[in-house]
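Need phenylalanine--tRNA ligase's 3D structure for a figure. Predict it.
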Amino acid sequence: MDPSELQQLVVNTLAKDSVIPDTRKLVIPGAKGQATTAEDQNAVISALASLASRDIVSYEQHDTFTYFLTAEGAQIARDGSHEALVWAAVPAKGSEEVITIKQLQDQLGQTAKIGQGKAFKNGWVGKEGDKLFKLVSTIVDTTQEELNEVVKSGTLKGGEKAIAELRKRKLLEQKKSLWYSVKKGSAFTTDLRKPETDLTAEMLATGSWKNSNFKQYNFDADGTPTNGGALHPLMKVREEVKGIFFEMGFAEMPTDAFVESCFWNFDALYVPQQHPARETQDTFYVSSPAKALSPPKDYIDRVSAYHIHGSPDGASRGYQAPFSLDESHRLLLRTHTTAVSSRMLYALAQKSKKEGFKPAKLFSIDRVFRNEAVDATHLAEFHQVEGVVADRGLTLGDLIGFMQTFFAKMGLPNLRFKPAYNPYTEPSLEIFCWHPGLGKWVEIGNSGMFRPEMLEPMGFPPDVRVHGWGLGLERPTMIRYGITNIRSLVGHKVSIEGVEKSPAVRF
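Structure prediction for phenylalanine--tRNA ligase:
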């Protein structure tokens, strides 16, 4: 039926009866009887929505549930339930005829396996050894009766409990049907001429606009979606973290060099050349070119001396192990952005020699690379957030206080600190925050005060201390967006639709 004809049918019916209590009772011309099918009701709601937008009618939606048999349910309605068939196949107690469980299964197949337990539970069948026998002379097959009732009426007098049991046994399926009750709207009319959408020059000239019916604007309608680009959730969190650093007076370090030398990545940070982190199972080494340009000779000599012998005043004994320049010149994909911090701190120390020391606050956010197996929470390539603060007389208490302020701005106010070991910081602290969703403390970062063995070769004054800390960017992003598998956040499995629809993040 044409939509306009259906709309006219609705308003004509309302003009006659004032209300339409059930749209399933509407008789649609050209259709077979009343509008009882889902297809009919889809056409009705389309007509009602159009009329309601003009306040000609108002309507309420109702639903009802009907039930129909599955293929197995239809078979039981015809032949009887599995338990009834088991009872029928078993001889009476005391009979000369004997049937074993295996013989019953050979005779009835899958029906025996399904119905045997029910027959025992109902008290219809008993067992002596491996032999089965009837316990009652007659039974009432309630399951078959209920299914036949559904066939006749589409529902059950036994109510929800009986329906739930049959659905649990996969004998019934449920179908939801929608229908509507309709009444007159504030602008009810049987004249459904299409309202004007434009005010024309002709209307103004003739004055016909005064008697015209204009379509109202729908200010609640969605506008046309824009096709602009969208930031990846990881980049949204990155920009928000950057904003926190800038708010706290930090300057951003340049991080465009993914390839780094072992000297800046390890040696300058006082990481021993025998440390397991340098093994190929943890680090990606570059095969060509394999060697880096040499750092300043006087600096590499001082670093080498601190590694081998410790500090000149004897406060540190170093590692008492060989130091290889060939190892220092090996190229790798940086394993942490602390390699950038070591370069920047060395440059700050050299500037301090010429112009005097000035406190500094630096940060970086960029990719690092680890030779790790990829799983739901680990990637071989990920982002690290790094911050350093250099000033005179800094203490561990200053570091803890700064961490509390920084992470509170990230929306993580509940922190705990645990002593840890890092080759280039002492003391070192692991940072934990309370995760309400997981109900436990989760490690979110690492921090510490850079060791004198790292700072003294750079040339810093003895009273200068440097705080350093770092955390991954992916974990807070996963928490913010409810992502459980990191491979859904980075890589070829990323949902483009998810990127477009992800909300802005605010800490």
